[in-house]
Amino acid sequence: MIELNQLEQLVCIAKNKTISKAAEELLISQPALSRSMQRLEDDLGVAIFDHYSNRVVLNANGEMMVERAQKILQELEQSVQAVRHFARSHLEVSIACCAPAPIWDLEPLYQQFDPSLHLTSAVIDEEQLIPELKNKTYQLVITPGKINDPEVYGNYYLHEDLYLSLPPGHHLANREKVEFEDLAGETMLLYSKIGFWQKLHDRTMPHTRFLQQDERRTFNEIVKSSLLPSFTTNLSIKREGKMDERVIVPFSNSEAHVPFYLNCLTKERTRFEPLFQYLKENRHD
Fold first, then answer.
1. How many CB atoms within 10 Å of residue 151?
2. Whole-model pTM?
3. Which helix (H) or strand (E) segment is 258 a member of?
């Protein structure tokens, strides 16, 4: 029976032009390679080499066999990669959201749901969430609001509520609620890696000055020692706790309260339905 390593050896001989050079590349002895090619000829029932006094060359049969061997090896490699990709797709799940906080809760919950799965996540633009889901770049996406698309299946996941974080002496600290307009003319501290919240702040607070910091730990340390207002959310407080010496005031604007939905492709619903049910039963928001 013809073996795959014989086909690999034959292709190597064709590439190197001689058995001796091929043997060097394959890290085997020349006699061993010659015997392997003799067995290949025996299995084929035809000669694929012409033997001369000082050299051995591929004949027409051999050249045809080389072409066939290259196709077989290429198809085998493609099959191996396809199977590996299929296996990874069922062991790895990629999820994207347009804000970082909703992913914080999902990652540990997913590991409890199925510890054998590997979850990767990314924060991308809101406009790219559904196109990337349909392109299968991500198997799950978290969107701010329900998606009305027959190709997309989604369930409510959680709310993120925006709060104003203030030092006790700030003139807004005694308010029960505030509005975006109340921050006109204010200078605020802002963590920069907040996804779609950044666009919301820029759009709804055009007259507010933001001092941005892109490292979370540094940002929190600055907020603790600052007299400037900043933002926080219910999910940030859940994860990091409420800062001492800061007053938390909710926003009355509807845009400050965002329902997030977890979505997959409709044709993948059967695969992810147990996860949706698990999250529903274990959600604490």
1. 11
2. 0.67
3. strand 257-265
